[in-house]
## 1
Amino acid sequence: MQSADDWVTRSLASVWHPCTQMQHHETMPLVAISHGRGAWLYDHQGQRYLDAVSSWWVNLFGHANPRINEALKDQLDRLEHAMLAGFTHEPVVQLSERLAAKTRHALGHCFYASDGASAVEIALKMSFHYWRNSGRSEKQEFVCLQGSYHGETVGALGVTDVPVFTEAYGGMYQRAHVVMSPDARQAKSGESDADVAVRAIQAMRTLLERRSDKIAAVIVEPLVQCAVGMAMHAPDYLRQLRALCDEFAVHLIADEIAVGCGRTGTFFACEQAAIWPDFLCLSKGISGGYLPLSLVMTTDNVYQAFYHPEVARGFLHSHSYTGNPLACRAALATLQIFDDDDVISHNQLRAKKLAQALQPIAAHPQVSHVRQRGMIAAFDVSPTVREGFARRFFTTALQKELLLRPIGTTVYWMPPFMLSDEEMTLLGERTLEVLQLTTL
Ligand SMILES: *Cc1c(COP(=O)(O)O)cnc(C)c1O
C-alpha cells in the first residue's frame, strides 16, 4: 500500500499540475484523492472535502453517481469507441437529437470535440468559414467582452481577456476586439444591472457600426463570465446583443461551457433571454463531470452553407475522439437525470437554499457584491492582506473540509446540484469561518 504522502511526493516529481505555479506547492498542500461519493471527495487518510466547486465546474450529480456508473458499465461492454467519420453510433445520435430537441430544433446540428477550448475554436472556425463560403471572406475578425474567458488553446486565447492566461503569449495569436462587459458590478450609484447592460450594448453598437464588414462573430459567456470571477449581467443584455448581431449580420456565439446544463436556472443560459445564438458551445457539465466531451450546436442556415459537392466547402475539422460513445453515454445518463428528477424545477428551490446560506456571509464587513445566478453564488472580499489571499483561503478551507478555490479576491460556490440542505448549511457556516480566519 502506498501512503498518502507517497502519492503527493511522486506527483510533484512527475506530474506538472494545471493552472499552478508548481513552486507554491512547497508551502501549499497537494491533496491525493482516493475516492469520491456524492458531493464529497476523500483523501487517503480518510479526510473528506465538500466539492463546492464541482471539480472545476464539471460535476452536476455527485461523484460515483449510481445512474451514470450503470450507463457507462453497460456502454463499456457494447462499444468503447469508433471513429465518427464514415461511421455513427447510437449514443451520438441520441445525444444530438435530445440536445436539438431542447432548442426546439433552432440549433439542430451538433459537432463534437473533447474539451471546451476546442468547442470554442470550432465555433470560431465555422463562423469564419461560413462567411468565406457565403462570398464574404473579408469577415475574419472576432469580438469578445472585457474579462472574457473561452479557453487556453492558442485560438481560444485570442478571444480571452484574462491577463494571467494571455499575457505571456501575446505574440502567438490574433487578438479579438475587446468590448465593454455588462458586468453588473460596474453600476454607478443609482444605476441598475440593466442600465450597465445598455451602456455595454452602446459600446458594442459603436464597434459594429464602424467595423461589422470585417467582423465574423461576437462571442460571449451568457449571464455569468465565470473565470474572470463570476461577473454577472442582466439577461436583457443578451436579447439586445442578439438584435445587434442580426442588424449588422454578425454571428453570435454563446459559450455555455460553464453556464449551460442547468447551472444558471434554465438548461441553457440563453433561454433566460429568450434567444438562440448561431453557435452554442457545451462541455464541462454535459457528461456529468465524468468524461471529456464538448460540442457545438448550430443552425440549419450555417449547416447549409457547408453542404455542397465540393470537399473544401465542407467543415473538415476533426478530433481523434470525436463523439466518443462512452462520453456520449455519460451525457445521455446525465440528461436522463434532468428528466427523471425534474432537476430544473428542483434547482429553483436549491438556489433559494443557497441564497439563505449566503446571508450570514453578506453581513461580513469585508464582503461586497454578493451575487447569485441559479447554482452559482459569489462575493468579493477585501482582505487586509491581499497577496496570496486565494491560496490562503484554499488551504484554510481544506482544514474545514471544504474544496473552495477563490479567483483573486472573489470567493464562489458552484456546487453539484444534489447538495443536501445539511450540506448547504455546512457550506455556509464553514465558508464564514474560513473568511474570518483569512481576513484577519
Ligand atoms: C472552462 C471553460 C472553457 C474551456 O474549457 P476546457 O475544457 O477547459 O478547455 C471555455 N469557456 C468557458 C466559459 C469555460 O468556463
Note: The longest strand covers residues 367-373.
## 2
Amino acid sequence: MIPYGRQDITQADIDAVEAVLRSDFLTQGPTVPRFEQAVAEYCSAQYGVAVNSATSALHIACQALGLGPGDWLWTSPNTFVASANCGLHCGANVDFVDIDSRSYNMSVEQLTAKLEIAEREGRLPKVVVPVHFAGQPCDMPAIARLAKHYGFKIIEDASHAIGANCRSEPVGRCDHSDITVFSFHPVKIITTGEGGIAMTNDAILAERLRRLRTHGITRDPNHMTEPPDGPWYYEQVELGENYRMTDLAAALGASQLDRIDAYIARRHEIAEGYDDALADLPVTTPWRDPKDHSALHLYPILINDSAGKSRREVFEAMRAAGIGVNVHYIPVHIHPVYRKLGFTHDQFPVAEDYYQRAISLPLFPGIDASSQNTVIETLGRATDSKL
Ligand SMILES: *Cc1c(COP(=O)(O)O)cnc(C)c1O
C-alpha cells in the first residue's frame, strides 16, 4: 500500500532520541525548551509551548484566552474535529463558517456576513479558529481586520502548515493571531510521534499556556496567592491538564526540524508533478494562492461530474490498486456529536459539496517517482468513463 502520508526517519533522528534515552531526563528536561526555542526561531515567534498533541495545544489555547460557558468559538467545517472540540471542552458553544470553493479554507465573505448577523443578535464569537487547510494559509490579514473590528481572538490551526508563508510572513509568527498551533503527528510536515505546539508573541499568554499544560501549577512566587511555605512549595492556581511533551519527542522534533525546508521543497515537486499529470483528467487539482507559500500537507483533488464515475468508485478503485487515498474532511458539523447539538446536513453547502467529491492523493517527502506514477496511472484508469 502506498500511504497518503508517511513520516521520514533518518539515522540523525534515531541518534537524537537515543541520546535522550541515555540522559537523565526522559521528560521535563532540557530538550523540550530547546525544541520550543528552535521552532520559535524557525517561524520568528517569541514563544513556543510544546505539548503532547495539537489537540491539547488547541484546548489550552482556548483556556488561556478565557473561552468558557456562554462564549462562542467559530471554525471551518472542513477540518479535523479537534479544531471545534476545543471549544466544547471549554464548555463554549461552537459554530462554523462555510468554506471558499477555491481555497477550501474558511470563506472571508461568509465570515464577514455571519459576523454582521451575530453582532445584531448579540452573539459574536470570542474565538475564531481559521484552519490552514492542506497547508494553504487562510487570508489572515483580512481575518485579523475583522477580529479588530468585532473584538474576537484568533487561534490559527496550522496543524498542516508549519513551514508555510502567509504573504511573505512565516505561519507561526502570529502577525495576525493571538496563538498559532502546529501538529507533529507522523502524517504532518514534521513529527514528534504525537505532539504539538502553541506559538505566541504574548508573554502573559505563553506563561498561562505553560501553566495549563502542567495542571495549572505554578512555582513562581509572583503568581501565588500565599507566600511560599518553603523551597518545595508550589500552588495549583487554576485547573489545567497534563499535556506535557516528553524530551524523547522533542529530540525527534528538533532533529526533524533540521530538514523541514527540504521536506517542503520536495512536497512542492510532488504537487507540481500531479498538477501537470492530472491536467487532462476529469478532476480539479488544488489551487494554491500565488501570494502565499503552501506547506502542501495534502493534495486533495475533486472528482468532476464529467468523470462519469463517483468519488466512491474512484476511491475504491484506488484502494483496490494498493493506493492509500484518503478523504479530508468529513465536515465536522455532520458528525453525530455535532448533529446532537442541532447541526444538520446542508447547513454549510460548500464544505459538503467539497466533501462529496474530494480524494487526497499520496503526498509525502519519501514517495518515489515510480510510486507517484502508479498513483497517476491508476487515477487515470479509475476516472476513465470508457473503462
Ligand atoms: C492533525 C490535526 C489536528 C490534531 O492534531 P494532533 O496532533 O493529532 O492532535 C488538529 N487540526 C487539524 C487541522 C489537523 O489536521
Note: Residues 164 and 295 are 5 Å apart (CA to CA).
